[in-house]
What we know:
Chain A has 144 residues and is of the alpha/beta class. Chain A is 40% helix and 17% strand.
Amino acid sequence: MKDSKLILIVEDSDDDFYATLRAFKRDGNLSNPLQRCEDGQEALDYLKTPWSDEHLKPAIILLDLNLPGLDGRHVLKKIKQDKRLCNIPVVVLTTSNDEKDIEECYELGANTYIQKPVKLDSLFEAIQKLKDYWFQIAILPKGD
Amino acid sequence: MINNIGISSQRLKIAVAVVLSGVLISVMVSVRIWSLSIEQHNSLIKRTSIAKSELIEHHFASSMPAIINALERMRNRWIARQGPPFSEWQLDAQDYVNDHAGLRAVEWVNKDYIVKWVVPLEGNESAVDLNLTFEANRKQALDLARDLKTYTLSKPVQLVQGGKGFLAYFPIFVGSEFEGFILGVFDVSLLVDSLLPHKFIEDHNIEILSGNEVMYSKKEAELTYDDKTGHTHSFSLYDVKWDIAVWPRKIKEGSENSNIHYIALFNGVLISLLAGIALFYLLKSLISESIISAKDAEHKATLENAIDGIITLDSKGVIRGVNTTAEQIFDRQRGKLIGQKLSALFAEPFRSDYEQCVWRKEQLEEGCVEIGKVQRVAGMLKNGHVFPLDLGITTFEIHKEQLFCCVVKDVSVAVKLAEEKEKLIQQLSKSNEELDNFAYIASHDLKEPLRAIQNHACFLKEDYESILGSDGVYKLDRLVYLGAKMERLISDLMYYSRLGREEPDMARFNMVSAIKSTQSRLSESLEEHGADVTISSEFPTVYGNRTRIEELLYNLIVNGYKYNLSDKKVINIRFDENLKAYCVEDNGIGIDSQFGNDVFKIFKRLNSPKKFGEGSGAGLTIAQKIVERHGGRIWYESELGSGTRFYFTLKDDNQNNEGQ
């Protein structure tokens, strides 16, 4: 059965997206559908659209903070303020390790904050653990 | 003021001294004049005394020869007549006695020395039939006269008629026949009394002596003879020595003269004292006037040269005086300012405010003006130029009139400068902020493509390893390695820039626990390098950001074992009580003194990475930044080959308040 747990990746950098995608596909069996939004506005537009089989509600959102236009903090805030969206876990995945950013994101309701590891190996490891945790260990709310 | 008081009292002292010496001199002069006057008076009296004594002598000297000549003529007539009858002789003698006052009597003494005839008889009865031999003095004179056949004067004798006098004997020889003597009885008292005018006698005491015998004495009061006022005239007449002492009578001297001198003296002293007092007050007022005028001049100069404008107002708020600076501030002559209302110098809204002011102290305090407080108002020139003006008003009273003193200061320049400063500060802080943001953003943005380059290198290696061969793989590895190195540099730069931007949360914490926690963070690395961290003192409580302080310790500890070739690497941490500084000391390779403070320069590396491993060269720069952000200072002491001691201080600004 096709796993319908959609992973929404908000990432402006093609290179980072490629690296993340590669990390997800590293063990060769990524069954989850993946959706990429390249900026904050696109992400919000996607999330505003009513869910359907063709337009799945994300089971998890991987959010970059530094985005062109509306930045990740803004997107996070909107998601967590929206009753329809607030139960979707948001994993902030960013290069920033600024304490202010970390604090702010958790205050806004981020479920996890991960600094993008500098080394590719570490990224692979991090993504693998993320995948294991959110899709194997954690129990997510049911999609509507 | 102090100076003035000093001058005033000094001048007063001088004045007092001048006046006192003036009075003293004046009194001395008075006394001198008094004594001179007395002396002069005395000498005047003495001169009178001399004159009188000389007059007496003159009388003596003129009367006696006349009498003696007369008596001699009588004797000669006797001889010529060969004994005249008594009646004739009596008339002759009577004439003599009448004419010559000093002549008490004329007598004829027979050859037996017995007085036979006496003219006048009255008052001389005792002489009749007197045998003159009864007394040696007389007899001797008689004998002498008879023997020498010439007239002889007796020594002064007590006259038988009373009184004192002397006798003149004229021996009568008719042929060789001795017929006795013509005898003249001189009474000194009679002589003197008749010769001297009555007034003359009254004025003076007179004493006439012949030898030691007092021949005449006329003293109305018991005044001893004084040579200052009296005079003794000595002369010799017919071999008889005479002393005539004349001196003024005491009572007269006292009543007439003495008091006058004392009154003069008293007056002199009194006038001196009064003049002295008057002079003193005159000097005093002159001195105080000169001091007051000096003070006035001083105050005037102070006011005129004050760098602030000074305006005095009357009780209605009308200008009654200004200084030069006020003229300059309002660009108007003194004459144009005086008489105007203060409000006329201000721009709106201050002009209306001050126009409505009631210039009374109580109201001012409640109203628009606060006495004694500087406020910012706007001044206005004639040409309408408005400028900021600081105004302070104080109030004072002169002769029950409430006056006001305004101190004004044109603060245009200061205001302009302050505005410019504010603008510059804003620009500077904006530029600093931009710089911080730039460093942060730039380094952040640099990281992304860098990471992508690394990632793609990895992907290339993964996907095409077999095609690339070992040389290609090595180059890709090298690319990844260099990318990682650059990443580290950028991270350090970011971190360094963040240290400058952030205001770390400060708290008190225990240094030992911070060391322990850093130590445990480094435990693996320490073990790997065979290094030990020791603590060798107690520490004061630290006030700072614990995370940053641990960062600082981390950097210093890492440096301590990284650049260390000892078998047993030891990093010791202690607090140096003398330097009041924390010390992290190691037994490493040391730092060549030629590097000085270069060790704190960012990305400055002193050693080859091959020898001591990789590092960005930012560790000590970051350490220095952390210390500086804590208000402290970092420095080191080192000996090449034996180790380095890094010292740092931390400002404990709450120490006094909390007393920990």
